[in-house]
């Protein structure tokens, strides 16, 4: 499990991060951030909030069984995977909660050239 920081060119090169599993699938996706430093601070907050299973709101709608993660009052990470069963989703939450604090960070951003 790791965090992946990336540029989002279609939104003025803002930054976002994803929590990825070992199969390189996105588990959770952040909102957009204006700087990489703010993105890193949000990852730190996510590591702290992610160890508490109570911070994961769940969806049990038919065809839409998933979970999100509340990091702070105004910060929510959106679940990127739809699970087939509630049990599968609950196991995924426990797996994330157990490993998120030790998740490494990979920076996939690119440096924009300065205007001459």
UniProtKB/TrEMBL annotation:
Domain of life per record: Bacteria
The protein's name: DUF1508 domain-containing protein
């Amino acid at each position: 499990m790791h965090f992946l920081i990336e540029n989002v060119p279609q939104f003025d090169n803002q930054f976002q991060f994803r929590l990825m599993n070992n199969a390189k699938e996105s588990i959770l996706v952040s909102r957009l951030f204006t700087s990489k430093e703010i993105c890193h601070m949000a990852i730190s907050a996510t590591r702290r909030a992610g160890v508490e299973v109570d911070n994961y709101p769940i969806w049990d709608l038919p065809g839409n069984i998933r979970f999100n993660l509340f990091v702070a009052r105004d910060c929510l990470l959106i679940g990127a995977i739809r699970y087939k069963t509630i049990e599968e989703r609950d196991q995924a939450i426990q797996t994330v909660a157990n490993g998120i604090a030790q998740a490494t960070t990979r920076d996939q951003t690119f440096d924009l050239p300065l205007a001459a």
